[in-house]
Amino acid sequence: MNQRYEQLLAQARIVPNPPGTYRRYDNILPEQMGKFAELIVQECIDIIAPYTVRMSKPGEEYLHPILEIKQHFGVEE
After folding, report:
1. What are phi and psi of 75, to 5 degrees?
2. How far apart are CA 12 and CA 36, in angstroms?
3. Is 37 in contact with 11 (CB distance < 8 Å)?
4. Cα atoms in the 13 Å half-sphere on the side-chain side of 65
5. Residue 4: how many CA atoms within 13 Å on its side-chain side?
6. Measuring CA to CA, which residue among 10, 39, 38 is closest to residue 25?
7. What average pLDDT does the chain have?
8. What is the DSSP letter of 61?
9. What pLDDT is stored for residue 2 in this prediction?
């Protein structure tokens, strides 16, 4: 497992069960899972932010990809 993944789990206050147990994470509360998902989405936004540009076609307007991701997942500023 990637070290950054472990850091995001810790930020969401998700603690693994002791080694040797059947499931590594089995007592995750819904709010912890929501926080973890939000952290992953934010991480993705942070990665693509330097590379994105406003996209549009003649006669059509699109949201900036970062705004679209935030809106899609309900991530607030």
Report:
1. -85, 125
2. 5
3. no
4. 14
5. 5
6. 10
7. 77
8. E
9. 72
Contact 56, 62 (CB under 8 A): yes
Structure tokens at 12: 């969401």
CB 52 within 8 A of CB 64: yes
Q: What angle do CA 23, 27, 31 make, to 5 degrees?
A: 135
CB 36 within 8 A of CB 9: yes
- The closest alpha carbon to 77, from 33, 43, 42, 51, belongs to 42
pLDDT digits (tens, 9 = 90+) for 25-49: 777 888 888 899 889 888 888 888 7
> What's the rounded Cα separation, in Å, for the pair 71 and 63?
10
